[in-house]
Design a protein that fits this description.
The chain is mostly helical. The chain contains 13 helices and two strands. It has a single domain, classed as ABC transporter involved in vitamin B12 uptake, BtuC (Orthogonal Bundle), CATH 1.10.3470.
Length: 316
């Protein structure tokens, strides 16, 4: 039991911080521009594929730097020559634009790299166990993922709350005209924020590719849960995205680790089961089977009872 709890906590922490790394860029973009970028998860996928190609030539560590930079430049160009022109037609047009962009990126990835899974691996120096506990090992690469994710959170928090750049960004969120009158190039700030958000998505892809797999459906596999994170945490709230990411990470990993059915639960509380009842099949459903839908159930409850999310100030 102690082994299950400890390793579920560790795996939940890794998965939750990976979700934060991906959702932080989307949160940054939304808080600044009010755009829910449907192509964000596709840029995450693009980062993983770019890192695979770069690492096959010059190694993992250059890919860790170069791939997010390319993703960030791509995001900045998308904002400058795409979203900026679409913005005048309203948020619906922006959503449709990013939705179409997600399909274009996915088709581009399949055209260039094919539809098969890629053998993108962690560097050899991290392909070892960090420690062994209860006859189970914890990989060094997962510890590296933890360090990178925490570093990003701390860096973003410091930049947004303690630096002059963060002051300009926060002011441009609520008073863009005033910031422009003070001599700051607000469109350039928007482009920079979108680029940084895209770079964070690309970095998440570089980090997650060796663990979760690098394949054409990786954006679809992780993309929806990112929107769940930012809605539960609160639209535009970095702290909210961090807390919600950890909450969902722990929720899913513990659900997967618990191999109990509803029949076991009813028996534990003293209820007798009728094997001939209309819902008898539900008694065999396990908590692990329900794990993937639990975040979405939490999302529904959040929208019903607190539409602003945990730390948000605006409703969905």
């Amino acid at each position: 039991m102690a082994e299950l709890i400890i390793f579920s906590l560790l795996n939940g922490l890794v998965y939750g911080l990976l979700l934060f790394m991906l959702s932080s860029g989307l949160t940054l973009i939304f808080s600044m521009m009010g755009v829910l970028n449907f192509a964000h998860a596709s840029i995450y996928m693009l980062g993983a594929y770019l890192a695979y190609s770069i690492s096959s030539v010059v190694g993992y560590w250059p890919g860790l730097i170069i791939a997010p930079v390319i993703a960030g430049i791509f995001g900045a160009l998308v904002e400058r020559y795409g979203l900026r022109n679409v913005h005048k037609f309203g948020h619906v047009a922006e959503l449709i634009f990013t939705f179409g962009l997600a399909f274009l990126i996915e088709e581009f990835v399949q055209l260039l790299w094919g539809k098969q899974n890629l053998d993108y691996r962690e560097p050899e120096i991290l392909a070892v166990p960090l420690f062994t506990l209860f006859d189970s090992t914890f990989p060094a690469y997962k510890a590296f993922m933890l360090l990178v994710s925490v570093g990003i959170f701390v860096a973003l928090l410091i930049v947004l709350t303690r630096s002059r750049v963060g002051l300009i960004i926060n002011a441009a969120i609520t008073h863009p005209n005033m910031v422009g009158m003070l001599g700051h190039n607000v469109p350039l700030v928007f482009m920079g924020v979108f680029g940084v958000g895209s770079a964070l998505a690309g970095l998440a892809g570089v980090i997650a590719g060796p663990v979760l797999g690098t394949f054409p459906g990786m954006a679809v596999a992780l993309g929806p849960i990112v929107f769940v994170v930012i809605v539960i945490g609160g639209l535009g709230s970095l702290i909210g995205a961090f807390v919600a990411s950890l909450l969902i990470g722990f929720l899913q990993t513990f659900a997967v680790a618990i191999d109990y059915s509803f029949g076991d639960l009813f028996t534990f509380i003293g209820m007798t089961l009728d094997s001939q009842s209309a819902i008898s099949d539900l008694y065999t459903v396990t908590i692990a089977q329900l794990g993937p839908i639990l975040p979405y159930l939490l999302l529904v409850l959040m929208l019903i009872f607190r539409p602003t999310g945990l730390f948000g100030t605006r409703e969905v």
